[in-house]
Design brief:
Elements (H helix, E strand, L loop, with lengths): L3 E2 L10 H9 L11 H14 L3 E5 L2 H13 L4 E5 L3 H5 L1 H7 L3 E5 L1 E2 L2 E2 L1 H7 L11 E7 L12 H14 L3 E4 L3 H8 L3 H5 L4 E5 L10 E5 L1 H13 L8 H13 L4 H18 L13 E5 L7 H10 L2 E2 L1 E4 L2 E5 L6 H24 L1
Parallel strand pairs: 1-12, 3-4, 3-7, 7-8, 8-9
Antiparallel strand pairs: 2-10, 5-6, 9-10, 11-14, 13-14
């Protein structure tokens, strides 16, 4: 049975064009004299987001960690939206490696409440609070189901940060999904952060890699921290070549992933309105609410796997479905058929009980 993998867009395989470019990439030692293909990707990434420079990293987690270190020098408080990816899954880096404390602020679909942000920001160390070292924004917002904070909201956060002298970092792992959803160049989003990190290894289909972008001075500082955390690379052009193809060829097709996600959300809503709210699906992530179900998310995931559908149980009563280039209309129909079958089976079992 061919599995339909909806766990994440990180499962995407490189395209044939990527494999060709990887096989013929010009190479060098990136940690010494520089790898020419890495340099090409970094220049392309910086240009795409309107920053002076970029730095190639093995992962988004490392890109965010290096950004935190380079901005703060270790110490202080980081402010971010409740449910942010950095606080949910990268906490070890914040606490242990960067010696930073974090504060989650109330947020609506990933957009930080401005009043709360204004209240807790502290430009310097006080007798009862740490200095605010950094504000982190996230788009698309993973936990909020791929939500895209508006440009107006990001501009307001940026303005408040500048007023208080606090830098802003954007965790833009799925930056280009956000740009496609808003119908703007990625640089319009990046303009509201001093720095930004994005992945080429998710919906853009490259096998590895993220880019940290910012001013030349910041990237030079970040380069030192990358070395400290073990991120120096050698003939990294093999991986960077796929990233170049990702930026050249894979951005525009993200709209198709968004369309299939809405197809899934609408089908689930038709099956049971409590499962999804299709109008909230902005990009390629669909959160499935199982609050009214008799079965838990892990139970649903196990049963769906038996029918050839892989999904992610992200909370005890929530599944996450992520669309990508390996999931089209037929795969979505298979997933919906599996959900329909299990809904009927689970309901019948509850009635017998």
């Amino acid at each position: 049975m061919t599995m339909v993998d909806l766990r994440s867009d990180t499962v995407t395989l490189p395209t044939e064009r990527m494999r060709e470019r990887m096989a013929t990439a010009a190479l060098g030692d990136d940690s010494r004299d520089g790898d020419p293909t890495v340099r090409q990707l970094e220049a392309m990434a910086a240009e795409r987001v309107g920053k002076e420079a970029a730095l190639f990293m093995p992962s988004g987690t490392m890109a965010n960690l290096v950004a935190l270190l380079a901005h703060t020098g270790r110490g202080g408080e980081v402010l971010l939206a409740a449910g942010s990816h950095i606080s949910r899954t990268e906490m070890g880096g914040i606490a242990i490696l960067a010696s930073l404390l974090h504060r989650e602020l109330p947020a609506t679909r990933g957009a930080i409440a401005l009043d709360a942000l204004r209240e807790v920001m502290s430009p310097g160390l006080a007798h009862n609070r740490l200095a605010t070292a950094l504000i982190c924004l996230e788009t698309t917002h993973n936990d909020a189901g791929g939500a895209v904070p508006s440009l107006e909201h990001m501009a307001a956060v940026s303005a408040l940060a500048r007023e208080r002298g606090v830098p802003v970092h954007i965790d833009g792992a799925r930056l280009f999904n956000a740009a496609v959803a808003l119908g703007v160049p990625a640089s319009r989003i990046a303009a509201h952060g001093d720095t930004l990190a994005f992945c080429v290894s998710k919906g853009l289909s490259a096998p590895i890699g993220s880019l940290l972008c910012g001013s030349r001075a910041f990237i030079e500082r970040a380069r030192a921290f990358r070395r400290m955390v073990g991120g120096n690379l050698r003939q990294a052009g093999v991986a960077a070549a796929a990233g170049i193809v990702a930026l050249e060829e894979m951005v525009d097709r993200l709209a198709e992933d968004h369309r299939v996600a809405r197809l899934l959300a609408s089908g689930l809503h038709d099956l049971d309105p409590s499962l999804t709210e299709p109008e909230t699906v902005e990009t390629n992530i669909v959160n499935v609410d199982l609050t009214t179900s008799a079965r838990t998310a892990p139970e649903w995931a196990a049963a769906l796997k038996e029918q050839g559908i892989l999904v992610g149980p992200t909370k005890p009563r929530r599944l996450r479905l992520v669309t990508h280039r390996h999931v089209g209309d037929e795969e979505a129909k298979r997933a919906l058929a599996a959900f329909r079958s299990l809904t009927e089976n689970f309901s019948a079992a509850r009635a017998v009980t």
